[in-house]
Amino acid sequence: MPAHSSAAPEAATPPPALPAPASSPAPRRWLRRIHGGGVITESCPSWCVATHAHDQGGMVGDLTHDSAAVAMRLPMRVQGGVDAVAWPVLSAMVRQWPYEDDGDSARAREPHVAFEPSPDETLELDADGLAVVIDQIRAHADRLEQVHAQLLAAVAEHEAEVSL
What we know:
Blueprint: E1 2-3, E2 28-33, E3 39-44, E4 65-66, E5 70-78, E6 84-96, H1 105-109, E7 112-118, E8 121-125, H2 127-162
Antiparallel strand pairs: 1-5, 2-3, 4-6, 5-6, 6-7, 7-8
């Protein structure tokens, strides 16, 4: 868990734009060794950027397809640390578990969004669920602007009192 910091965060550089979708590239195909024996030919969807380096020799159901992730990064001092690190928040990527057979397997087998409000906390959302989260984040940004205005007024009031 990050420690609180009173230092103002440095101005964030805007994140790079997501790559433009390719015009229907041929699916990436590769041979995958399966735990317990056997080989299967896998095909990645056009949006999958996963290397699948750790999928060799695993269980069939462990395969995931992941898009590039987007995240806002805030400078935070992690407990015990001296230097600030770029702490990812509001991270999201398209994900699919093509062979999922636990829980809500039909939903996991379809592309969905893995949304991490903060590290190690993941919500699996469909398009409608992500739209709700986006609306909530926009509304919260409006509330943060109100807090910012209150802070500016409080600082001005404090400075006026100190200069007396």
